[in-house]
Design goal:
The complex is a heterodimer. Chain A is of the alpha/beta class. In chain A, the strands form 2 sheets. A 6-stranded mixed sheet of chain A has the order 6-7-8-3-9-10, with helices on both faces. A 4-stranded antiparallel sheet of chain A has the order 2-1-4-5, with helices on one face. The longest helix of chain A is centred in the C-terminal third of the chain and has 16 residues. Chain B has 2 domains: 30 residues; 285 residues, MetI-like (MetI-like fold, Orthogonal Bundle). In chain B, helix 9 crosses helix 11, helix 10 crosses helix 11 and helix 11 packs across helix 13. At the A-B interface, helix 2, strand 6, helix 3 and helix 6 of A face helix 12 and helix 13 of B. Chain B: Belongs to the binding-protein-dependent transport system permease family. HisMQ subfamily. Chain B: Keywords: Cell membrane, Membrane, Transmembrane, Transmembrane helix, Transport.
């Protein structure tokens, strides 16, 4: 499906081992009511590392990624992002959210604002950037995701793939250190998936720290430094994509891979 | 693989099909009549019967209201009107309006000073028109409001600039209705937004307070609130301190309208997808930035129809102040026909008052439809 994604050659790793870890999860637990959705999740993501999280639906992968910028709150354990621990402290949270960009499955663009306004709102009000500068920045990133000519339109006038690329540009306009992708291609028609994945590959080439929840195995092969397989709220297995996909050591991952591959 | 659907869809389009006219008799007035009024024998019968009644009553109304009507009389001599009313072919006595219109519009305001409330009504109407125009939607509008409202206060009270002082007890008629409605909604709307946000707050104390406010106010009739404001409230005040009766009624109206509008606004807040809140939070917007830029602009657009519905309802509910003796438009109209010479001409007076209410309410309704279309343009491809 992702034909132009070059799954054969893995892009060069940009992990900076000297820098402190970008994200650290230490024995994180979360419950919805009595349902235990995250069980003792421990995960460390280095600066510049690209992690792909996969697993069957309901395995807690979205919940985990949403805990990292506290769209969901964890109940036990520690989450440290860019050196700041996530607590009830609002200032710490604001600081983290400024540095962490997020892309959602359903785009979540603001439908009443133009594409340009979508991209400039946060830089102007959160980063206190002058309007002109914010617009130049937005046009820069909109050019990068290849839709500068749509800047004056409203999100409803764009295709799904274009909307998701705008959502990526919007997140990038905050110049985040870390990007989180929560199933960014799951709501897209097949012919639009590639344009979004290409954008993400470009981002990976620039050395962005990324965590990406996705089922796009071709993308994982090409981009990921590490693949994390989750099931029933646990990290079951993790490792380099080649090793994990060709030699799954657990039965759960074998089952999952066979289901995924049958679909392709 | 991704190419396949593309090519099939292109191949499926026939090349340059020539545009054709729609078949005859599916458009045009004749087709419309056939489809909507005469599509079956039953529909034809209903159409004919209803048509008969509509035409018949329209004719007798025109006869009554225009052809047989008396438009003015000399010196309160209403015998002609009474004779006409009792005759076999009755007519309206619009003379009551000609004679009493100034009392209906301005109540017991001193007769020589009627130009002052007249200007006030024009100022209010002008204020509505200016506020309705989108090109005036900027912060300067707040100054226009402040200046206009102060001018209105000066005109009504007087006592400065050589205007004679008119105590509030003598105000009446249309200005009272417009004052109650304008101040009522201007204060109730922001209050409602805060209460609606408060009901969804994560802080329990604020949430409980807002829920209590809405449920308490919504649970009692406006009339009992007005009674409380006019009778009970002064009992709690220290001796000698007396808050204006109109002001107390005004506060009651604001609180009442606020509770209803809050629920309407809350409906809009709840209708918004959760993703909008999350996207705003993920970008690092603060609570008030998120609310002001993302949530409210969308939520309020969604609830324009019920919002205007409530506005219109409250514009007319201001007439309930008659029970605490405030002279609004409706009360002034009722009082105008107390005089023996004019007793029995209520229909004419009520029709005239209805027309005034209708003009304001219909304008609001049309404007809201317009605004809805305008503001929701972004949803149209």
């Amino acid at each position: 499906m992702s034909a132009a994604l070059d799954t054969e050659t893995h892009i060069a790793s940009s992990i900076r081992a000297d820098a402190p870890p970008a994200i650290l999860l230490d024995k994180v637990n979360k419950w919805y009511g009595s349902m235990h959705v995250l069980r003792d999740i421990s995960l460390q993501v280095a600066t510049g590392e690209r992690v792909v999280v996969c697993g069957p639906s309901g395995s807690g992968k979205s919940t985990m990624i949403r805990c990292i910028n506290r769209l969901e709150q964890h109940q036990e354990g520690r989450i440290v992002v860019d050196g700041t621990e996530l607590t009830d402290d609002v200032r710490a949270l604001d600081a983290i959210r400024r540095e962490v960009g997020m892309v959602f499955q359903s785009f979540n663009l603001f439908p009443h604002l133009t594409i340009l306004e979508n991209c400039t709102l946060a830089p102007i009000w959160v980063r206190h950037m002058p309007k002109k500068e914010a617009e130049e920045l937005a046009m820069h990133y909109l050019t990068r995701v290849k839709i500068p000519d749509q800047a004056r339109k409203y999100p409803g006038q764009l295709s799904g793939g274009q909307q998701q690329r705008v959502a990526i540009a919007r997140a990038l306009c905050m110049k985040p250190k870390i990007m989180l992708f929560d199933e960014p291609t799951s709501a897209l028609d097949p012919e639009m998936i590639k344009e979004v994945l290409d954008t993400m590959v470009g981002l990976a080439e620039d050395g962005m720290t990324m965590i990406c929840v996705t089922h796009e195995m071709g993308f994982a092969r090409q981009v990921a430094d590490r693949v994390v397989f989750m099931d029933r709220g646990e990290v079951v297995e993790q490792g380099a994509p080649e090793q994990l996909f060709s030699n799954p050591s657990t039965e759960r991952l074998q089952t999952f891979l066979s289901q995924i591959l049958r679909g392709h | 693989m991704s190419d396949i659907p593309l090519t099939t869809s292109v191949a499926g389009v026939p090349e340059a099909a020539a545009p054709r006219q729609p078949p005859a008799l599916t458009t045009g007035p004749a087709a419309w009549l056939r489809a909507n009024l005469f599509s079956s024998w039953l529909n034809t019968a209903v159409t004919l019967v209803l048509g008969y009644f509509i035409v018949r009553y329209a004719i007798s109304f025109v006869d009554w209201a225009f052809i047989n009507a008396i438009w003015s009389v000399e010196n309160n001599q209403t015998q002609a009107c009474r004779a006409l009313k009792a005759s076999a072919d009755p007519g309206a006595c619009w003379a009551v309006i000609t004679e009493k219109h100034r009392f209906i519009l301005f109540g017991t305001y001193p007769y020589e000073e009627h130009w002052r409330p007249a200007i006030v009504c024009l100022l209010f109407t002008g204020l509505y028109i200016v506020s309705a125009m989108r090109r005036f939607w900027r912060w300067e509008l707040a100054i226009i409001w402040a200046v206009t409202l102060i001018t209105i206060g000066i005109l009504m009270w007087g006592g400065v600039f050589g205007l004679s002082y008119v105590p509030q007890e003598r105000w009446g008629g249309l200005p009272i209705t417009l004052i109650l409605a304008t101040f009522g909604l201007a204060f109730a709307f922001p209050l409602a937004i805060l209460v609606a946000l408060g009901r969804r707050s994560s802080m329990p104390a604020i949430r409980v307070l807002c829920i209590a406010y809405v449920e308490l106010i919504r649970g009692v009739p406006l009339i009992s609130l007005l009674f409380m404001a006019s009778v009970m409230f002064p009992l709690f005040l220290p001796e000698g301190l007396n808050i204006d009766k109109l002001l107390r009624a005004q506060v009651a109206v604001i609180l009442f309208a606020g509770a209803y509008l809050a629920e309407v606004v809350r409906g809009g807040l709840q209708a918004l997808p959760k993703g909008q809140y999350e996207a705003a939070e993920a970008l690092g917007l603060s609570y008030w930035q998120k609310t002001g830029f993302i949530i409210l602009p969308q939520a309020l657009r969604l609830v324009i129809p019920p919002l205007v519905n409530t506005f219109i309802g409250f514009f007319k509910d201001t007439s309930l102040v008659l029970i605490i003796g405030i002279f609004d438009l409706l009360t002034a109209g009722k009082t105008a026909i107390v005089e023996p010479a004019w007793q029995g001409f209520g229909v004419e007076v009520y029709i005239a008052i209805s027309v005034i209410y209708f003009i304001y309410c219909f304008a609001m309704s049309r404007y809201s439809q317009n605004l809805e279309a305008e503001l929701n343009r972004h949803r149209v491809r």
